[in-house]
Write a structure and sequence with these properties.
The chain has 338 residues and is of the alpha+beta class. The chain has 13 helices and eleven strands. The protein has one domain: Beta-lactamase. A hairpin with a 5-residue loop joins strand 5 and strand 6.
């Protein structure tokens, strides 16, 4: 079982109400660990934090060149987006370039997670479509990969499909791992989700940071995706989202990606490290950004001058029904706990 250490406190008034445990690992491309919390060699599902590597599999196969995909489109292929109009436009552009439609997306529909976009959709009495799914960019990218491979669009969710075999092979290479049937589940959007250890996941992000310990083609594909994510961070997440704000504040020094169930991965370009964390209770998405900011600070990846711009993510307010702030979610400082 994956286990962590108490790392994030939820306060109400002056008292701690809840504690979230976090497991984390930071290492270099050789797997040398420089930071470890909890168990780091127990497999867990990387979930959407794997999207940069999924996108890179398509780039390696030639989707960016064949369909003239720009940085916005490559970034949304790596995204868990909020369903804002510019996200939808980028996904629609990919589908148009590859000769596919929204009906080819098998990710399912849900309302935009960005509340103003959801409200605008409701005000027009329009139902959400698969375009609004936070994973629609990834799915459009996989459909592009199908086109390049000459594989059918139908069935692209299945692990045996040529597109998924290509993706999983890339993910195995960057993580130095093998994903047999016991390591594969089904993600929320329907594609195979692979389980790897925190150590191997961190090594994947170290490779994204350094482009080392890879063959030239894999490195070039990862560089193209990383460049797009850093250049267009709003397309990776959206307005007010942690990943977008962190990459903007880091100004080219960090490429990051969140995943469901409390996962976050960071490629630290200056130090050449990868950092991956998992909030052990999974559902506590609120704990991810305080934990990530604290660990990035420990690793020297964030400067003190950058802290104010990330304060809303480091100290996440808890509001009551009337909108009054009554507490915070923040990295645990034991001296402050009574």
């Amino acid at each position: 079982m994956l286990s962590g250490v108490p790392a994030v406190a939820v306060t109400r008034g002056s008292r701690v109400e809840s504690i979230h445990n976090v497991a984390a690992c930071a290492c270099d491309v050789r797997g040398k660990v420089v930071l470890a919390l909890g168990t780091i060699d127990e497999p867990f599902y990387l979930r959407s934090a794997a999207k940069p590597f999924i996108a890179a599999a398509g780039v390696l196969a030639g989707v960016a060149d064949r369909f003239a995909l720009d940085d916005r489109e490559l970034a949304v292929m790596s995204a868990s987006h909020g369903g804002e109009p510019f996200h939808i436009a980028a996904v629609e552009s990919i589908l148009s370039k590859i000769g596919a439609t929204v009906d080819d997306l098998a990710c399912g529909a849900h309302p935009p997670s960005y509340e103003p976009a959801a409200a605008a959709l409701a005000a027009r009495a329009q139902a959400p479509t698969a375009l609004h799914n936070n994973c629609s960019g990834k799915h459009a990218g996989i459909l592009a990969l199908c086109r390049v491979l000459g594989a059918p669009l139908a069935g692209y969710l299945e692990a045996a499909h040529p597109a998924q075999r290509t993706i999983l092979a890339m993910c195995e290479r960057v993580s130095d791992d093998t994903f047999g049937p016991d390591r594969l589940g089904v993600d929320g959007c329907g594609i195979p989700a692979y389980a790897t250890s925190l150590r191997n996941a961190a090594r994947s992000f170290a490779r994204l940071a350094t482009l080392e310990a890879l063959d030239d083609a894999d490195a070039a594909a990862l560089l193209r995706v990383r460049t797009a994510m850093i250049a267009q961070p709003a397309y990776v997440a959206g307005t007010g989202r942690f990943d977008t704000d962190l990459m903007r504040v880091a100004a080219g020094a960090i490429a990051c990606k969140a995943g469901a169930e409390g996962v976050h991965g960071d490629a630290l370009l200056d130090s050449g490290l990868g950092l991956v964390l998992k909030v052990v209770d999974g559902g506590a998405r609120r704990a991810v950004s305080p934990a990530a900011i604290a660990l990035l600070g420990q690793l020297g990846a964030l400067e003190a001058a950058q802290a104010p711009a990330l304060d809303a993510h480091a100290h996440v307010p808890i509001k009551n029904v009337a909108g009054r702030t009554v507490g915070y979610v923040t990295a645990w400082e034991p001296s402050a706990i009574r």
